[in-house]
Every structure is written in structure tokens, then in C-alpha cells.
Amino acid sequence: MTMAGNAKKGALLAAATDMEPIHGSIEVDVPADILWRGFNKPNLWPRWNPCFFWCRNKTLRLGDKLVWCFEPIRPWYLYKMFAIANIIELEEGKKVTWEVTALPGFYAHHTYSIDDLGDGRSRFTSWEKAYGWGFRLTRLFWLKHFTFVRNRSLEGARALEIVHLTGEKLDATGIPPRSYFNFLAAVAGLLALIVAFAALGAWALLVAVAEAAIGVALWFYAAYVKLRPVRLAPGVHALLGGGGNTLVVEDGEDTLLADTKFPPGSWLLRRWLRQEGIGPVTKMINTHYHYDHSRGNVLFPEAECIAHELTRQAMDRVDGSWWTRHRGVEPTHVFDGERTTIMVGAREVELIFLGHGHTVGDVAVNVVAAGVIATSDIIFNGYYCYMDLHREGMSVPGTIEALRRFAGEHPKAIFMPGHGPIARAAELLRTAAYLEDLMRQVSAARAAGKSLAATLAAVDLTEWDLQILPSFHQNRLEWATARSSIRAMYQLLERAG
Ligand SMILES: [Zn+2]
After folding, report:
1. How far does residue 290's CA lie from ligand 1's centre (Å)?
2. Cα 260 to ligand 1 centre (Å)
3. Which of 394, 412, 433 is the last residue of a domain?
């Protein structure tokens, strides 16, 4: 069913050339009717679609006003954007369109649609277009905003798919709630600041500086340190964040950790295990030698530790002094072949050597019957990846090869990446395409005789819309960014000659 809406403006919009429609799709293993029922609860959108801060409507109804609030296009921009629109088209189970008329000189349509692909699969699409003098005046912002909405919406559909595949319902009981902690802390901070200025005058500047520091610390904690548990299958949990992601597999008396994070994430991991009554930990795997996946080993000294032989060697060569000071928790069970199988209780867990990828000794962990695979750091899902320049570190072609091979061999698996949210084969392929683009652009710049500085200026990675990620090296905070990735790629190519 459709309503006229503003028919004249609708027709003008269709013909307008102020912008190309910003659209995109994602295919998910969710039957179309189930996906629609999950989608048709706008007040739950902020839980799974990170572009929404809040939405009032409980359901979509033709002719209703949709009232919501957007998140900012960058997390550190201090705004929320209120929005109101008229629902002018609703094909139950398939499609909704709303028109935005509230801004002067601005008229837009946004459509979300779900196509049934058969076989329990569907395609989720976001489509948006605007025109008008008000739009043209602020065009650059709107193009960024529409791109943000599309990208976050497609990621959100993936998040809904994971909820569905892990056996939860796409409703308020199954979709994890979102946290308003940071927002409430910011509001409380602002109020405290106003009170401080009224009471203290210029001394309130001290309060402002202290609050800013607390604000940054809270944001850092919420974004990178706090753990997000996701139950992937009975007895199989992903603990996302706080360093490298950790996979927990339990069966009977046996508990396996694939990667153990580093403090303070490792402390939070141990606390979570205790709270859930899981453990004691009997086995741990280090998927590769990096500190953010292995230094938490010290908290589980009773567990036997398994890694690839090359990982064990890299630990000694690169981080030898640390491991010497922490004897007894290094990998004691090493394997050097292509794969090996271990048992966790009655569960079969396959360790697959990935070849020289993110490091020389990457191992993926396949919980066979559950269809869940921890990939190690060959994928940083949604983030720029940390590129290790040691001899034991990254091979970009090797990582691309491993991602493609893995996606092809396990098209239906649920992947826990080394960093970032739960992924499917499509995200592995996207990461491979990103790395290929990075390598191609930097190679071309080098072939044209460009210096590192000129290459940094020439290579453009914005279309990949990746987020930055912190890491610590020699006790210094470093960020994986577009610049650090281009620089590392340049150096890797320089070394390869
Ligand atoms: Zn890592």
C-alpha cells in the first residue's frame, strides 16, 4: 500500500539529480518473514542498527509519523540528530518508505526492503535520496550521513542474522539491549559542569579538564576494554573486546579458551567465567604470538596451552624477555602440521594452520559440530588491522589467500574474528578485497616513484569505512588507522623489493 505523501515533491525527487541514491544490500541467512518481524519493531532499531540512538514507534504503520534520533556520523561528534518522517509506503513483509519534509528546502525518501531469496535466505536493502536547495547547501554532510546510515544499517542486518543463527528470537528477549551508559555519563558531566561554573567561577576550568579526562577514559573503556559476551551455540561463547576476541568452549569438565587477551581485558574475562560458573579452564590456545591474545595465559596456569610451533618460536624471538619472566604458561603443546584435532569433553575442535598470514603461525579454531570458527587476526572486522612488521609478522598476500580459502571452504560458518563483531564469509571476502585494494594502491604509488609521504597523500581508503583500533607496543599507545596501514604496506613492499 502507498499513500500519496507529497506527490509533487515525490515526482520531483524521482527526477532530481542533486545526488545519486545512496543504497546497498546485504544477504543474510534469515527467512524473509522472520527478518521482517524482527525489523518491524522500530523501537528496537537502536539495539541492532548502530545509526539509531532512539526510536519511538513500536511498529510500522502506513500514514504514521516515525519519530527517532540518529547517532552522530563519528562517535566523537557531540550531537544527536532528531528526525521525524511520514510513512508513505508499506508493503507488509517486504518494504517501507518514509518521506522527510521537516527541514526547509529538503525533501528525502528512505526505503528499507527485504527480498526473499528462498532457502531461508533474504536480502536487506537500504536506499535513500534527497533533493532541494536546503539539501544542496549542506550536501556534503548529508552524503556522509546517508552513507553512515546505509553502512550501519547493513551491519545491523548482519547483527540480526547472528542473533537468529544463534537460536535467539528477533525481539526484545533475543536482541541484546544497547547501553546508554556513555550518553548518561555525558549528560551528568555537562550538568556538573554547569553547576561548577555557577559555584566556582574560573576554578570550574579545573573541573572541566578533570571531566574531559574522565569522559575520554569512559569512552575508551566502553569502546575497547569492556567485554561483550555473545552465545554462539550451546557451550560456545565469544567474548568480544578487551584485547583479541576470546572463544570459550565448554563440555563437561573441560573448558577451552581460544586466546586469553591481556590485562585488564584478561581480568574481565576471568571474572566473566566465574560469574557464569564456567571452568576451571583446562585448555587454552594462542592463535598467534601477539600479546593481546596471549598474555592472559598467566591467569590460567593450570590449563595446558596449545599453539603452532611457529607461534611458540615467534614468542621466544620477539617477546622472549616477557615469556622468560612468565615461565609455565607458554604453549607446551605445539603442532607443526597443517591441522590437528583436540577434544574438549566430547566435542571435536580442529586447529587449522593458516600459513603465513597475520603472523607466521596463525591458527584458526573450528568447533566442528557447532559450525563456529575463531579466525585469529586474519580479519579485523570493521577495523583497520594492525600490521606487524617483524619477520614473524604480517604477509598481506598470505592473509588475502587465507581469507578467500577459508570463506570458500566454510560458506555457512559463523566466524569469530580476532577483533570486531561476529562475521560471516562475506566479511572475510570484504577484508580480502580491502587488503588487495590497499596493496594495489600502495604498489601503484611506489611504481610511480612516490615517496612514503606522497603515498600517504595519494592513497584513499575512505570508501572502506573502517574504524580505528588502539594497540600497545613498547608500552606506547598506537592506533591502527588508514595512515598506519598505508605506511606499513609501503614498508612491507619496500622490504619485498
Ligand atoms: Zn590481535
Report:
1. 6
2. 11
3. 433
Give the CATH number for residue 101: 3.30.530.20
Indicate whether 461 belongs to any domain: no
User: Do 17 and 112 belong together in one domain?
Assistant: yes
CATH classification at residue 297 = 3.60.15.10
Q: Ligand 1: distance of its center to the CA of 232 in Å? A: 20
Specify the number of domains making up the chain. Answer: 3
Residue 481 included in any domain: no
Q: How far is the CA of 387 from the centre of ligand 1 (A)?
A: 10
What's the pLDDT score for residue 444?
Answer: 97
Centre of ligand 1 to C-alpha 310, Å, is 17
How many angstroms does the Cα of residue 368 sit away from the middle of ligand 1? 23
SS3 of the chain:
CECCCCHHHHHHHHHCCCCCCEEEEEEECCCHHHHHHHHCCHHHHHHHCCCEEEECCCCCCCCCEEEEEECCCCCCCCCCEEEEEEEEEEECCCEEEEEECCCCCCEEEEEEEEEEEECCEEEEEEEEEEECHHHHHCHHHHHHHHHHHHHHHHHHHHHHHHHHHCCCCCCCCCCCCCCCHHHHHHHHHHHHHHHHHHHHHHHHHHHHHHHHHHHHHHHHHHHHHCCEEEEEECCEEEEECCCCCEEEEEECCEEEEECCCCCCHHHHHHHHHHHCCCCCCCEEECCCCCHHHHHHHHHCCCCEEEEEHHHHHHHHHHHHHHHHHCCCCCCCEEECCCEEEEEECCEEEEEEECCCCCCCCCEEEEEHHHCEEECHHHCECCECCCCCCCCCCCCHHHHHHHHHHHHHHCCCCEEECCECCCECHHHHHHHHHHHHHHHHHHHHHHHCCCCHHHHHHHCCCHHHCCECEEEEECCEEEEECHHHHHHHHHHHHHHHC
Please, which pLDDT band fits residue 4 given cuts at 50, 70 and 90?
A: low
CA of 250 to the centre of ligand 1 (A): 23
How far away, in angstroms, is 311 Cα from ligand 1 center?
Answer: 13
Same domain, 371 and 419: yes
146 and 193 within one domain: no
For residue 343, the CA-to-ligand 1 centroid distance in Å is 25
Same domain, 346 and 421: yes
The range of the structural domain enclosing residue 28 comes to 7-165
Distance 259 CA to ligand 1 centre (A): 9
Compute the distance from residue 123 Cα to the ligand 1 centre, in Å: 32
Any domain includes 369:
yes
Ligand 1 center to residue 206 CA distance, Å? 37
CA of 382 to the centre of ligand 1 (A): 14
Is residue 428 domain-shared with residue 316, that is, in the same domain? yes
Distance 104 CA to ligand 1 centre (A): 47
Q: Which of 5-9, 156-160, 275-279 shows the lowest mean pLDDT across its residues?
A: 5-9
Same domain, 60 and 113: yes
Over 80: is that where the pLDDT of 193 sits? Answer: yes
Distance 289 CA to ligand 1 centre (A): 9
Q: Is residue 216 domain-shared with residue 239, that is, in the same domain?
A: no
Tell me the average pLDDT of the chain: 94
pLDDT tens for 157-173 read 999 999 999 999 999 99
> Residue 2: what pLDDT?
64
The CA 188 to ligand 1 mean position distance, Å, reads 34
pLDDT for res 204: 81
Q: Give residue 291 CA to ligand 1 midpoint distance, Å.
A: 8
* pTM flag (> 0.85): yes
Residues 64 and 127 in one domain: yes
